[in-house]
Amino acid sequence: MANLEIRQLLKKNRIPDNDGNLLIFILYCPIGLILILLRSILLLGLFILGQVLPDTPAPQKFINKIACLSLGISIHIENPKSKENVNVYVSNSLSIFDQIAVCSATGAVSPSCRTTLEKILGLSTYCFGSATNLDNFKNNIKQFMADKKIPIYFAPEEKITNGRGLLKFKTYPFEFANKVQPICIKIDRPFLDVSITTVGSTFTSDMLYYLFSPITNYKLTFLPPLEKKSMSDEEFGEIVRQNIATSLKVQTTDFTSSDIAEWEKRTLAEPPVRSQHRVTTRSINPELQRMSKQVKEVLPHVPLNVIYSDLYMTRNVDSTITNILEGRVSFTPEQPTSSTASQPSTSSSVSVGTQASSVCSSGKPLFNTAASSFPKSASERSRSFQERKEQLLASARKRYIEKHNLDIPV
């Protein structure tokens, strides 16, 4: 099995984090906005046609072509002669519109219980009931296949990934036929490097980027059909998964769709880690320098430029101390010294202000809040911070009041 981590199976950013791609994206924006407007008009017509035309193969094929045009989808079948007439097709899952590409190539329908709008846009979908009531769901599919004689398309991963690995397959799709044809899907956007989906993205946001992007290419590869014979559904599903993974040259993982959903939920719930804000000498604020020294007195192991960067956003000493203690500011600790650092030069250095002396102006030794050693693991650092947090805040408040001779109870 693969050593891939869950975070490697999902993309966090819609646009790759480099200046070149960002510049291309900005320059393309006016064209993208025009495309959204024009394609939205086509989608409105598609919605009307979906309500009016009968649910038969010929009209659905016509609607499918309009959908591909509206969403900027181009479908290329690498080996069309390898496609066989089977009752079940399965593939990896890369996007919300995989079924448009697969169903256009195979004439199959895909199970769906989405809203009316999504069903129209998704096309070639059919509601068999909720998969939470699995027995009823499976009975409806069997009845449909017997009555309509139309194949079914499944994406057994049941969760969209970036394609770097395959999740564990659900086993129920392999109950409906003894012969299954695997399909490998690859997607790329050649003229604009924009991710198909990201962590926490919605159907609507993903669809907007289809409308915005110049083109989204789907490449389908039909693998030789596989027969179940005497294998169990689980064994058969694993063989199908291994065949798709081998063809795509990706790894199989032990993660399930539930694992991905849980990881996404935790990731979205976590507070964002603040990055160090770049500060040039031209933007140095004397008031923030003064506040930086106050924080440095309390947290001598934190680099002064990191303190300044957070103060640049919070404009509050207590808030910055809290952010640092609770791990919302990333930094490399430094050994506290009693020497005074030089003032920032006129170069583009991010160094700000001077380090505070280890003895305050009143001549009293400062309360040493630094740990004897900086823990390596995040959990140990967090525990250390929590234990000292209240003490640090109280000490900082007391010294601040004494230093400025404020008439406030300590």
UniProtKB/TrEMBL annotation:
GO molecular function: ubiquitin binding
Disordered, as annotated region: 331-355, 368-390
CDD domains (alphabetical): CUE_AUP1 (cd14420)
PROSITE patterns: CUE
TM regions (residue ranges): 21-49
CUE domain span: 287-329
Highest taxon listed in the record's lineage: Eukaryota
Record flagged with keyword Transmembrane: yes
Keywords for this protein: Endoplasmic reticulum, Lipid droplet, Membrane, Transmembrane, Transmembrane helix
Subcellular location: Endoplasmic reticulum membrane; Lipid droplet
Pfam families per the UniProt record, alphabetical: CUE
Any single GO CC term annotated in Swiss-Prot or TrEMBL for this entry: lipid droplet
GO biological process: ERAD pathway
InterPro entries xrefs: AUP1_CUE (IPR048056), CUE (IPR003892)
Biased composition (Low complexity): 332-355
PANTHER family according to UniProt: ANCIENT UBIQUITOUS PROTEIN, LIPID DROPLET-REGULATING VLDL ASSEMBLY FACTOR AUP1
Family: Belongs to the AUP1 family.
Protein name as catalogued: Lipid droplet-regulating VLDL assembly factor AUP1
Organism in which the protein naturally occurs: Phyllotreta striolata (Striped flea beetle)
Lineage, broadest ranks: Eukaryota, Metazoa, Ecdysozoa, Arthropoda, Hexapoda
